[in-house]
């Protein structure tokens, strides 16, 4: 039956291609590219990775299947290299490989080397074009530029420039011609990087927005370069990318290769002008888009989100040797076991996660604060017990859980301050206007129990906050802990302004968590309903308003 189904699918595609081809020949006054006189179908493959976050090796990955959390081993850059090589062999000289940013942050190996473990690896993977993501700035402008220039491949981004002279950091675009078909790419990073990240990270870098100037650049690029198919490679997050696909800015765009929010788009999302993809994160997936042309006309496309299963795609031994060499100076320190867990630790849900419960519990245990808070951000690789035994937690795991290691700070805030701040954070996560979302995940905390409705208007989502067994009082002060965000005012805690009696501690969040694990292992973090919304339920994954997208 599977063989018959495949034959039928292929037959249907070919019939569709021939029908569209006839229509193009009879209705179009001139072809898109008059130089192309191809009689047979020409297929071009676009492979896309996104948000690898320094993950070099295979690792547990969380899937949502049949209303249950399931873990499978996925990823590994040497495994991706094998996949790339196989796909190139299937379509030689007609395959383009793209990465959408956030390569150099997210693991202990990238953090301790300040991204320097990556260039030799990336150079040997054979990418064609790469854009910087929102985390590429983490080690500062100079390091970012040096690392990315060492990739030995095209780096493009339209909206990042040297603040001192307003000169672009990298070229805005790139064109690849394959047998007369001109494929164009424009790179766009999130203009809100200085707000989303610690402000000091992007010092010296200016960002332009999604505006009329961008539209003019896109339209001119397509016309002057005679681009047949135009891609925007964007690091904006799924919500803004879907909105952009229906924005007049994208009037002459065909596809948006999206990145940033780690979403697993398995069927491209169709906007008014463009189709949107986003291929997961951590090297666990590769997006594969195949474009079919007849006589220079794009007549059909196929899209598949490919699992990087290490059992299917064995390691490329040459690249694995390079990876091992790059890891060697840091391996002994990072692979040291600092604790154990009896329950799976993960961060994939939009509201509450075991991983964040453990981190904020550790911070509250160490500081003695009433409430400890942590950013709701990137998923992080799960840590999963097996065979009935506790799973070890290494320092490498800590870097996956907490990719920035900053000092802890404490202060005092009133109940009203905390509520107003939390309402703002909820709007960032759940706004029905996609352009107003930041990431899409709620801030995490220990010491509070919050009931809310994500569908209410801004400022009216919270129905109850319980602290120390009682309803939070507007005029009462509560002690709060968070992490330092370099570049923020001293009296800001996790974007909460005007906090009193702020004190920066003499230990970092990693040190706090490591000490907590040493004294409390094996830990067993679970979902406790610290934040709960009936509409979302316990297992709440990302939603994209106005689409049928589901995370799985």
Automatic annotation (TrEMBL):
Signal sequence bounds: 1-25
Annotated keywords: Hydrolase, Nucleotide-binding, Signal
Cross-referenced InterPro entries: 5'-Nucleotdase_C, 5'-Nucleotdase_C_sf, 5_nucleotidase/apyrase, Calcineurin-like_PHP, Metallo-depent_PP-like
PANTHER family found in the cross-reference section: 5'-NUCLEOTIDASE-RELATED (PTHR11575), SULFUR OXIDATION PROTEIN SOXB (PTHR11575:SF42)
Organism, scientific name: Gelidibacter sediminis
Protein name: 5'-nucleotidase
Gene Ontology molecular function: hydrolase activity; nucleotide binding
One GO cellular component, as annotated: outer membrane-bounded periplasmic space
Domain Calcineurin-like phosphoesterase: 45-262
The keyword Nucleotide-binding appears for this protein: yes
Family recorded in the similarity comment: Belongs to the 5'-nucleotidase family.
Domain 5'-Nucleotidase C-terminal stretches: 337-480
Superkingdom of this protein's organism: Bacteria
Keyword Nucleotide-binding on entry: yes
GO biological process: nucleotide catabolic process
Family matches, as Pfam families: 5_nucleotid_C, Metallophos
């Amino acid at each position: 039956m599977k063989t018959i189904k495949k034959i039928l699918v292929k037959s249907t595609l070919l019939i569709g291609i021939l029908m569209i081809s006839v229509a193009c020949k009879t209705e179009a006054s001139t072809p898109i590219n008059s130089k192309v006189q191809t009689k047979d179908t020409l297929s071009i493959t676009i492979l896309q990775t996104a948000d690898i976050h320094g993950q070099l090796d295979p690792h547990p990955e969380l899937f949502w299947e049949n209303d249950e959390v399931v873990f499978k081993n996925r990823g590994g850059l040497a495994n991706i290299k094998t996949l790339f090589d196989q796909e190139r062999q299937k379509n030689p000289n007609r395959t383009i490989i793209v990465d959408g940013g956030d390569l150099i942050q997210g693991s202990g190996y990238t953090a301790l080397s300040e991204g320097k473990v990556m260039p030799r690896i990336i150079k040997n993977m054979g990418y064609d074009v790469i854009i910087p993501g929102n985390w590429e700035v983490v080690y500062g402008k100079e390091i970012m530029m040096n690392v990315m220039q060492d990739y030995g491949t095209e780096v493009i981004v339209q909206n990042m420039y040297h603040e001192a002279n307003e000169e672009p950091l990298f070229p805005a675009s790139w064109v690849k011609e394959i047998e007369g078909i001109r494929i164009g790419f424009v790179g766009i990073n999130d203009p809100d990087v200085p707000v989303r990240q610690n402000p000091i990270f992007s010092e010296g870098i200016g960002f332009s927005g999604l505006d009329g100037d961008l539209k003019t650049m896109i339209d001119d690029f397509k016309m002057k370069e005679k681009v047949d198919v135009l891609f925007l490679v964007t690091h904006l997050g799924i919500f803004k990318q879907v909105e952009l696909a229906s924005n007049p800015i994208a009037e002459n765009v065909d596809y948006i290769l999206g990145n940033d929010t780690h979403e697993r788009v398995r069927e491209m999302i169709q906007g008014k002008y463009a189709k949107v993809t986003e291929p997961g994160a951590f090297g666990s997936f590769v997006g594969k888009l195949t474009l079919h042309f007849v006589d220079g006309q794009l007549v059909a496309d196929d899209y598949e989100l490919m699992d990087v299963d290490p059992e299917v795609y064995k390691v490329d031994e040459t690249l694995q040797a390079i990876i091992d060499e790059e890891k060697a100076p840091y391996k002994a320190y990072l692979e040291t076991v600092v604790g154990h867990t009896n329950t799976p630790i993960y961060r994939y849900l939009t509201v509450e996660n075991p991983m964040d419960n453990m981190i904020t519990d550790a911070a509250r245990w160490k500081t003695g604060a009433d409430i400890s808070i942590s950013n709701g951000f990137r998923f992080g690789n799960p840590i999963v017990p097996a065979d009935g035994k506790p799973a070890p937690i290494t320092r490498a795991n800590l870097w996956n859980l907490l990719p920035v290691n900053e000092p802890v700070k404490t202060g005092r805030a009133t109940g009203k301050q905390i509520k107003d701040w939390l309402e703002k954070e909820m709007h960032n996560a759940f706004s029905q206007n996609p352009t107003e979302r930041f990431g899409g995940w709620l801030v995490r905390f220990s010491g509070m129990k919050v009931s809310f409705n994500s569908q209410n208007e801004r400022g009216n989502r919270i129905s109850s906050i319980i602290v120390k067994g009682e309803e939070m009082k507007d005029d009462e002060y509560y002690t709060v802990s968070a992490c330092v965000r370099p570049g923020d005012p001293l009296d800001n805690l996790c974007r909460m302004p005007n906090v009193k009696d702020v004190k920066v501690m003499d230990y970092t969040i990693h040190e706090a968590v490591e000490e907590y694990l040493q004294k409390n292992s094996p830990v067993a973090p679970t979902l406790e309903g610290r934040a709960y919304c009936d509409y979302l339920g316990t297992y709440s994954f990302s939603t994209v308003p106005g689409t049928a997208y589901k995370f799985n």
